[in-house]
Amino acid sequence: ATATISHGQNSELKILKELRYPHSVGLLYSAFTQYAGFRVNSGEYKLMGLAPYGNPVYVEKIKENIVEIKDDGSIKLNLEFFDFMSNNKSMVSKKFEKFFGTPSRKPETQIAQKDMDIAKSIQIVVEEIMLKMAKHARDLTGSEYLCMAGGGLLPILLKKMI
Fold first, then answer.
1. pTM
2. Is the separation of the CB atoms in 85 and 79 below 8 Å?
3. Cα separation of 138 and 143, whole Å?
4. What is the pLDDT along the chain (162 residues), one digit of tens a residue?
5. CA triplet 94, 95, 100: central angle to 5 degrees?
6. Using an 8 Å Cβ cutoff, are 23 and 32 in contact?
7. Three-state secondary structure call for residue 69
8. Beta strands in 20-139 (DSSP E)
9. Which of 65, 83, 66 is nearest to 25 (CA)?
10. Distance CA 85, CA 68 (A)
11. In the beta sheet, which residues pair with residue 75?
C-alpha cells in the first residue's frame, strides 16, 4: 500500500481503504523532484522550495495526462510517463521529458523559470490530492480529528500552518 486510510478506536485499528503500488503520491512527487534536477528521497524539499517562485501553468496538463485524481483522493498514475518500475535509474520516462519539452535538469545547473513553474504546478496537484484524501478519510470515519503522516504531507502542512 502507498496510502492507507484507517480508523482507530481504543486499541483497535481498522484499515478502511488502501491505494496500491505503483500508484503513489510520493512517487509522483519524487519523479518531479528528479526531473527538476534534485536527488530523489532527499531533494524533495528543494522542489517544494522552488514552488513559491513559479506559476501553476502546468496544473491542468498534469491532471489531464499524468495523474488522474479521483474525488476520494485516490490517484491513478499514467505509467507511460514514469520509469521507476524498470531497472532504469530514472523516475521519469522519455515520454515525460518530451511532454515537458526538455530533458531532466542536470543537478547543479541553472534553474529556469520553467523549473519553478513545474514545481508550483505539481505542488498544487499534490495539495489537491491530499486535501481530497483527508476529506474522504473524515467522511469515511466520521472522526473530527485526523492524523496524517508521510513525506507527501510536508509541503501541504507547512503551507497550511503559515
1. 0.90
2. yes
3. 6
4. 999 999 988 999 999 999 999 999 999 999 999 999 999 999 999 999 999 999 999 999 999 999 999 999 999 999 999 999 886 789 999 999 999 999 999 999 999 999 999 999 999 999 999 999 989 999 999 988 888 777 666 655 545 543
5. 100
6. no
7. strand
8. 67-69, 75-77
9. 66
10. 19
11. 69
C-alpha cell at 133: 484524501
Query: What residue type is 104 in one-letter code?
Result: S
Rounded Cα–Cα distance for residues 115 and 5 (Å): 33
DSSP secondary structure of 46-66? HHHHHGGGS--TTHHHHHHHT
CB 103 within 8 A of CB 97: yes
Separation in Å, CA 111 to CA 7, 40, 43, 80, 95: 43, 17, 14, 26, 21
- CB-based burial label for 63 (10 Å; 0-12, 13-18, 19+): middle
Rounded distance between C-alpha atoms, residue 119 and residue 35, angstroms: 10
Rounded to an integer, what distance in angstroms lies between the CA atom of residue 128 and that of residue 133?
A: 9
Q: Where are the beta strands (DSSP E) in the chain?
A: 3-9, 12-19, 67-69, 75-77
CA angle, corner 111, sides to 106 and 115, nearest 5? 90
State how far the Cα of 105 lies from the Cα of 51, in Å rounded to an integer.
16
